Amino acid sequence: MRRSGRSKFYIWLLLPAFFFYTVFWMLPAVVAFLSSFTQWNGVSLASIRWVGLANYAELFNDRWFWNALRNNLVFVAVVVSSIVILGMTYALILNSKPRGHSVFSTIFFIPIVLSSVVIGLLFTQMLSPTVGLVGPALSAIGMPEAANHQWLGSRDTALPMIMVVYIWRELGFAILLLIAGLQTIPKDYLEAARIDGATPWDITRYVTLPLMRPILTVVIVLATTNAFLLFDLVIVMTNGGPFHASEVLSVFMYSEAFLKGNPGYGTAIAMLLFVIILCVSGLQLALSGRGQKAN
Q: What residues does the ABC transmembrane type-1 domain cover (predicted)?
């Protein structure tokens, strides 16, 4: 009897969270999924027309969708690998507590607390060929052709520049997680490896990295998910240009749904993006779990 009363009490505690989860997540998700099978002007409900899989069929024949997907995949591959490699390298260095490590930790952490819009505007000004600092700085070190280069106005450099800014913004969070993971490794394991004559590289490869696999998985999944959802930096810095060179799926979705007035088509893009993120994250978690079992 007492257990039954306690169960009812727990249910009442969970009801508010379940209500908000249903109203603000489940219902919008269901509505978005259903609207991906419709075509309407986004204003009048009377204009809604059921078109079935027409939006998805059109999507796979849309050259700009494939362009955005390619940009997104390149962005994710470069950004995630850079964040993991640089994050692990800096985490190992800072975890050894060299002189000034607290200052460098603060420097890496600063971008986390800054608004993405502020960061985008800041680097847009810095990369400007007229008032920016990047061109004159490169010219001063022997690269005069870079002084007037359109870093965000060139098809060859627009997306790479966004990658650099994004890595700078996200690297601090990855370092923070990785340092926390490094501090959980028992020091006895490291001391035993040193006594056995292992070099620092051997310790990192055979002791540290295997024990860091769970936190590395978290960092990789978070970095991948956030990279696929990239939106604000692109909108502020290039708006997807020049000529779709830096357009990613979220920007393409926004353009179709809100700028071109086709919410059904835009929602279909969102659904496909959701499936891609779900599959990639699931694959990463599956490979990580298989690696842990093998060890």
A: 69-284
